[in-house]
Design goal:
Distance between the termini: 14 Å
CATH architecture: 3-Layer(aba) Sandwich
Radius of gyration: 12 Å
CATH superfamily: NAD(P)-binding Rossmann-like Domain
CATH class: Alpha Beta
Oligomer: single chain
Largest sheet: 5 strands, parallel
Strand order of the largest sheet: 3-2-1-4-5
Strand content: 15-25%
């Protein structure tokens, strides 16, 4: 299972679609409770990423993270530490808006 932060945004939403098309299980972190028009089978989680200590329940079973800096902000370190505690060993942080989504998919280790 790959956790994608900012999953309803301009980078996260296309990434979620690509991961699903590649056969990866995706848990999508979205802001708020409204519909995010995510692909079928994607598990959406509404979360406040500024409080990473509350993330434990939705980190269960996650093996990789895609961290978008605008979605995670200053909480990135806390979220990564918590993810490691829950057994997640892989993560990819989007370093800039122009990052290529196919590259991110590859680095996330999506199953083919």
């Amino acid at each position: 299972m790959i956790l994608v932060t900012g999953a309803a945004g301009t980078i996260g939403r296309p990434l979620v679609g690509l991961l699903v098309n590649e056969g990866a299980g995706v848990r999508a972190v979205i802001c708020g409770t409204g519909p995010a028009s995510l692909p079928e089978g994607v598990k959406a989680v509404a979360a406040d990423l500024s409080c990473p200590e509350t993330a434990g329940p939705w980190l269960a079973g996650v093996t990789a993270l895609f961290l978008h800096p605008r979605a995670v902000g200053l909480a990135a370190g806390g979220l990564l530490a918590l993810a490691r505690e829950w057994g997640c060993s892989g993560w990819q942080r989007c370093r800039r808006q122009t990052s290529t989504i196919p590259g991110a998919v590859s680095r996330a280790g999506a199953a083919r």
